[in-house]
Amino acid sequence: MSPAIASFCIIFLSLVSVATFSAESKNLIIATGDYPPWTSEESKGNGFVNHVITAAFARQGYMVYYHFLPWARSYSDTERGEFSALSYWACSEKVQRSFYCSDPMHTESYVFFHEKTKAFPNWQKLSDLKTLRIGATRGYTYTKAFWQAHQDKTLNIIVNNDDETSFRMLLKGRLDTVIVSSITGFLILNTKFSPTIAQTITFNKPLVENTAHLLFPKSKKNSQRILKEFNQGLSIIKEDGTYDHYFDDLITGKY
């Protein structure tokens, strides 16, 4: 092989390597869980939140793929750096020890659903709910005080793997209330139960309003760079009307 041809081959292979690296660096695998309409394999855009994430990253030239896992595992696997990011979580003090939090994507109100015909305490603090059997979902954030009450057994909290199970227990009289996002709760009631049954349920005031964030693991060196790009993309889709369009679809049940 002549020196000229050898030099050409080296340059060509270098360009191919750079192009391949560039393409790979623009592909992201994000861990997530099932929490319709926010995140779901069965929903449009993999759910409202994931749809927003995909659109924000697309503005920055990224292609996003989602890997659905149980919530607790999605957290631990991403914390170890197995995924580029985690969709999605509240930006709690505990979370911030292992992750960088994106700008807020939306706000969720976690409320207590209960049967209309049964009296619900006019509660001011968690201890006012100590006589109730409360359905909660494993892996959800809620509040630190809520989970501490579960650990201390000062509240009777029954933890299930999903919200639908808790609602079925509520309707069978095995729970007095279910704590869940108001939009998610109504989606479950209106899609998993008959209209007659759904109309027997209402909800009380919120326990907490959590902002939702995309989490980037501190264990990965490129997390802060990608976080910055995501926040820029999120700002763009909020300014150009894309976010509002997706939110309109959310409240009209298209997710």
Q: Based on the structure given, which CATH architecture of the largest domain is correct?
A: 3-Layer(aba) Sandwich
Helix % is 40-55%
Q: What sort of overall outline do the alpha carbons produce when their principal axes are compared?
A: globular
Structural class: alpha/beta
- Using only CA atoms, what is the Rg? 22 Å
CATH homology-level superfamily of the largest domain: Periplasmic binding protein-like II
Q: Would you tell me which CATH topology of the largest domain applies?
A: D-Maltodextrin-Binding Protein, domain 2
- Average per-residue pLDDT, rounded, comes to 90
- Span of the ends, CA to CA: 60 Å
- Low-pLDDT stretches are 2-24
Structural descriptors:
255 residues, D-Maltodextrin-Binding Protein, domain 2, nine-stranded mixed β-sheet, disordered N terminus
What do you see in this structure?
The chain contains 10 helices and 9 strands. The chain is α/β, with parallel strands linked by helices and 255 residues long. It has 2 domains: 3-107 and 211-251, 3-Layer(aba) Sandwich (D-Maltodextrin-Binding Protein, domain 2); 108-210, D-Maltodextrin-Binding Protein, domain 2 (3-Layer(aba) Sandwich). Strands 1, 2, 3, 4, 5, 6, 7, 8 and 9 form a 9-stranded mixed beta sheet that branches. Helix 2 (48-58) crosses helix 9 and helix 2 runs antiparallel to helix 10 (242-251). The chain is globular, with a radius of gyration of 22 Å. The model is unreliable at 2-24 (pLDDT under 50).
